[in-house]
């Protein structure tokens, strides 16, 4: 019985260690999986994880969306860089997005992600544009 409990504890520990988190983008050297450009701007990077936890790196949310539309079998978890905290990742499903012509994202989709609605609204005052959810951004990219 003692070994059984130890085995259960070890399995739970292993499971908790396999939590899915994005692999860091090495700006200036990593290549976008979709467009093959070098990922340069740490305000716009994105990472998608497949069901096995493998990271796919992108230079922008729009590249990640386009890639996942083409290869849905690779899609599981989506992370975007918080525009107001360059280099830090947030779940795309929880992010607030600003879309407008004054948002100059790498691939011209004019999309920036924010971890809070307040941060997005402040940037909206400066850059104009519309605040969107992840689902709305995905629909926008299908047009």
Tell me what you see in this structure:
This protein is α+β, with helices and mostly antiparallel strands and 143 residues long. It has one domain (28-142). 32% of the residues lie in helices and 19% in strands. It is built from four helices and seven strands. It has helices spanning 2-17, 61-70, 117-127, 134-142, and strands spanning 46-49, 55-58, 77-81, 89-91, 96-99, 111-114, 130-132. The strands form two sheets. The protein has a four-stranded antiparallel β-sheet. The chain has a three-stranded antiparallel β-sheet with strand order 6-5-7. It is globular. The N and C termini lie far apart (59 Å). The model is unreliable at 6-19 (pLDDT under 50).
How are the elements arranged and paired?
Elements: H1 2-17, E1 46-49, E2 55-58, H2 61-70, E3 77-81, E4 89-91, E5 96-99, E6 111-114, H3 117-127, E7 130-132, H4 134-142
Antiparallel strand pairs: 1-2, 1-3, 3-4, 5-6, 5-7
What would the keywords be for this entry?
single chain; 4-stranded antiparallel beta sheet; 3-stranded antiparallel beta sheet; alpha+beta; 7 strands; 19% strand; signal; 143 residues
């Amino acid at each position: 019985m003692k070994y059984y409990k130890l085995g259960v504890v070890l399995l739970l520990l292993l499971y908790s260690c396999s939590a899915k988190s994005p692999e860091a983008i090495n700006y200036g050297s990593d290549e976008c999986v979709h467009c093959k450009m070098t990922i340069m701007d740490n305000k716009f990077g994105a990472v998608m994880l497949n069901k096995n936890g493998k990271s796919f790196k992108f230079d922008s949310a729009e590249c990640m969306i386009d890639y996942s539309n083409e290869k849905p079998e690779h899609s599981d978890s989506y992370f975007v860089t918080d525009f107001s905290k360059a280099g830090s990742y947030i779940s795309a499903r929880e992010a607030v997005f600003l879309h407008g012509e004054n948002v100059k994202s790498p691939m011209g989709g004019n999309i920036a992600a924010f971890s809070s609605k307040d941060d997005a609204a402040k940037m909206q005052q400066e850059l104009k544009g519309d605040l969107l959810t992840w689902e709305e951004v995905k629909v926008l990219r299908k047009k």
